[in-house]
## 1
Amino acid sequence: MLFRDITVIDENFEVRNHCYVGVRGDKIAYLSDELPKEDFGEVYGGRDKVLLPGFVNAHCHVAMTLLRGYAEGLPLDRWLHEKVFPFEAQIQSEHFYYGAMLGIAEMLACGVTSFSEMYFSCEEIARAVAESGIKCNLAVGVTSPVPPVPFEDNLLVRHMFSLFKRWDGAKNGRIKIDTCLHAEYTTDEETVRGMARLAKEKGSITHVHLSETREEHEGCKARRGGRTPARYFADCGLLESRAHFAHGVYLEEGDRELLRAAGASVAHCPASNLKLGSGVTDVPALLKSGVNVAIGTDGAASNNNLDMLSEMRLCSLLGKGIAGDPCLLPPREVLYMATRAGALSQGREDCGLIKEGFRADLTVLDLHRPHIQPVHDVLGAVVFGAKASDVVLTMCDGRVLYKDGVYLTLGEESIMAGADRSAKEILNRIGPVRQIESISE
Ligand SMILES: [Zn+2]
C-alpha cells in the first residue's frame, strides 16, 4: 500500500506534511516527500489525514470487557471481592475468547496495534489475538496459592509454561509471552524469586502491578521491613531482567532511581487510577528520572473503555493540572509515550515509529472533522482534539485490520452477540446478585 500526500508523525515525533509512505510485506519500506518510483500496490489518498504509529496499550486485561460497567462506585476491596472475583470465577473458555475479541475490536477501532495483557487464563485470549491480527505481549497474572506450593507446581506457572511452548513468537512474532507476577500482595517471596530466575533464564519481560494503591504500597513496607514494593522486587532479583510495571502511583524517589537503573518501564493508567480512587502517578517525576513511561487503559471494568486517545488526553491534562504548569507533558511527549515507549516496554524495538525498516504498525486519523478544524497544530489536534471515532485505518504488520468503520479480520456482530451471551451465562452461574448498598446510604 502507498499512502499518498499524507501528513506523517515522523521518527522524531515531528510533523511532516505531504509525504509518501510505502508499505511492503510487514514493513514500512518507503518514506519521502517525493513520489516513489516503485509500485506499492493500492494507493491511499491522505488529504486531511495524519499517519502515526499505532497505539500500544501497555496495560490491559482485555477479557474484562465482559465486566464493563458491572461494578461501579465501590472501593477497591469491595469492588474486587463482591463483584470482580465472583464474576471471574465463573468465566469459561469460550467466554474468554469473546471477551478478548470484544476488547480487540474496540482497540482496533481506536487505532491500537499492540497491547500488553495480564490475565489468569490466556489460551483463548491468544487465539483471539492470533485470529484478529493485532499484536500482544501476553502474561499470566501469577498469584501464590494458600497454602503455598513449590514454584513449578503452581497451576498458574504451569499455564504460563504451556503458553511459552505454544504461543511465544507465534504469528510472525505478533504474540510474545511475558513472565508475570500479579502483584506484591498476591505473591509469596518464593514465587517472586522463582519468577525472577525464570525471567533471567528466558530473557523475558516481567509484567507486574506495582504500587497501585496507598494500601498496597504502605502494606508492603509494613510486611517487608520498610521496603517498598520496588525495593522488595529488586531484592528478589526481579530487576536483573527487564520489568514492566503497571501503575506506579505511589513510587518514591528511590524507587524511580531503581527502575531507571534497571531499564524498567512503567505503564501509566490514568483513567483506571482515577476511577478506583487510587490516585495519580507522578509522570513528570518518572520522566525526569529517565524511566520509560508508556500508557495503558487497564481493564474495562475500571475505565470503562480501551481508548488510548482519551487516555493520552487525560495523561497530559492531569500532569499539567496537578503541577500547575501548562508546559508539562506536551502532545509530542504524550504521543511518544502512547506509541514508541509502549513498543519499547514490550521489547519490540522495531515497532512504534514511522520509519523505513520498521514494522508497519500504524493508524490514520481523519482531521477533516468539525471538532478538529481548523488545524493550527497537528500534534495538539491529535492529543487534545481527536476522538476514537476519527480513526479511519488501523494496520498491523502491514495488514489492514480496520478501515472506515469496517473490520477486515473479525465479525463485529457475532463478537458482540457472543460477548453478550457470555456475560449472561456468567451472571446465571453466579446466581442472584448480592445487594450492594448505594453510596448515599
Ligand atoms: Zn491491571
## 2
Amino acid sequence: MDKLLTTEQVAERLNVHVNTVLRFIKDGKLPAARVGKEYRIKERVLLAFIGDGPAPHTGALVIAVANQKGGATKTTTSVNLAASLGKEGKKTLLVDLDPQGGCAVSLGLDTSELNLTIYDVLVKRDLDISKIIMETDYRFELAPSNIDLAGAEVELMQILSREGILKRRMESIRNSYDYIIIDCPPSLGILTVNALTAADTVLIPVACEYMALRGLKMLFDTISNVRAATNPNLNITGILATKYDARTLNSREILEYLQALCKRENIRMFEPVVNSSVRFIESPRYAKPLVNMHPELDGAKAYQLVAQEIING
Ligand SMILES: Nc1ncnc2c1ncn2[C@@H]1O[C@H](COP(=O)(O)OP(=O)(O)O)[C@@H](O)[C@H]1O
Ligand SMILES: [Mg+2]
C-alpha cells in the first residue's frame, strides 16, 4: 500500500506553508483524497509532483464492464466484482450506467423511488456526483440509475463534447476511491461511449452460450474509435468467460475461440472462468451479490480470483 501523507507532512517535505499545499490541491496540481474535512496525499503522488519518481496513476482505476449484448453478464460481473474488491479492503464505487438499474435491483433497492440518479448527474451541470452516491451493505458504494437514464441518450445529443461528460463529472471523486466499476448498458450508444471515455480500462464479460460471439467485433471497433477520438490510453483489462457449462459443446467451443482470440490479439483472458450456475439467477432475489451470499461456490470464487488478478495488475 502507498503511504498516505497529511497536508502538514507534505508542507514540511516541500518546505512551504500548509496553505500553499492546500492551494496546490485546489488548483488540481497535487491530487489528493478527501478524508472528512482533511486531505491525504499518496507518497508516490508527492514524489511525482516533486519530479522525483515515475508519473503516478492518480486516483481510482476506472473499469468499464462492457459488451453490448444483453445477458452478457455485465451487471452480474460488475456487482460481484465490486463486492469482491470491497472484501479485499479496496474502496470501490459501482456506477450503474444502464437505464434498467440492474445494480440497484440486484441489491434489493427500489429504483423507482430514487430522487436523484446518475441521469441527473449527466444532465444537470450543477449536481455533484457525490450527492447521488449511496452506501450498500457490501463494502462498496453505488451511484444508481433508473429508467430516467433512458432519456439521457436523447438529451446528451444536445450537449457539446458529450462523450466526456461522465469523465468530467467523475473527476471530483476519482481520488476518493481505489476502483470505480461502470456497468454499461446493452448498446454501443452515447452512454457506453461515455463509460469508455471515462475508463482506464475495459473488462469484457462473454457468456459462453449461443450467439455470444456476435457483436464482439463491433465492440472492438467501438473501443478503437474511442481510442482514436476521446481516450487514447484506454486499455482492455481482459475477457472474462462466464456462464460456462463444460457439458455443452457450444460452451467449450466459445471458450476455445476466446482463448485463441486473446492469444492472437494479445489480450488477457482471465484465468478463472465463471461457471454457469442457477445460484447467479437466484442471488438478486435475495438482494445479495453471490460473493457475499455464497462465497464458497465456484462462481463466487471465480469473481474473487478475478478481483485479485485486477488488484495484482
Ligand atoms: N454464471 C452464471 N450462470 C448462470 N446465470 C448467470 C450467470 N451470470 C449471470 N447469470 C444470469 O444471466 C442473466 C443476465 O445477466 P446480467 O448480468 O443481467 O447480464 P447483462 O447485464 O449483460 O444484461 C441474469 O439472469 C443473471 O442472473
Ligand atoms: Mg445489465
## 3
Amino acid sequence: MTTPDQPKRLPANYQLVYDVVRAQEPGLHAPAGDIFTRAKALKASLGYSTVYRALDRLCKMGLVLELHLPGMNAALYEQARSGHAHFVCRSCGRIEDVDCDVPSDAIHSFVRGRDGEVEEIILTVHGRCTACRLTAPEPAGERGGDRSIES
Ligand SMILES: [Zn+2]
Ligand SMILES: [Zn+2]
C-alpha cells in the first residue's frame, strides 16, 4: 500500500473536493458537511450531492480515506496515506493518527487463503487519551479494553 500520486485528470469538481481534503491538516478528519462548507467557499455553485459523489469517487480511487468509527453516525474523511491506524478516545471522542505499519501482507494472505478478497483494511484502536486519563483516572485495577474492533 502506497500513497497514491496525483492522478492524471480529475473532473474539475472532484479535483476541487480533493484539494479541500488535501488542504486539511494531517491528523484531522472531517465529516462530509465540513468538506462541503469549505468546497462551497471556493465555488459557490457547488451542490452537496456533487461533493458527496466526489468524495465517494475519490475514496474508490484510493485518494481519500473514508472512516467509519463506532459511535459516530457520520463518516469522516482524510487524504489517503498508507501505514496509519486510528486511535479513538472513548471518553472525549478525540481521534489521532497512529503511525504504524498495518500488517497488510499478513491480512491479505490470510484472506486470500480463504478465497476471499480484501477491499480495505482499517485498524482502529480504542482507549483513553492523556487528557481524559488525567482528569478522570480509571478506578484502580480496572483497565478498559484498549484495543477492540466494534461496530
Ligand atoms: Zn479523551
Ligand atoms: Zn487518519
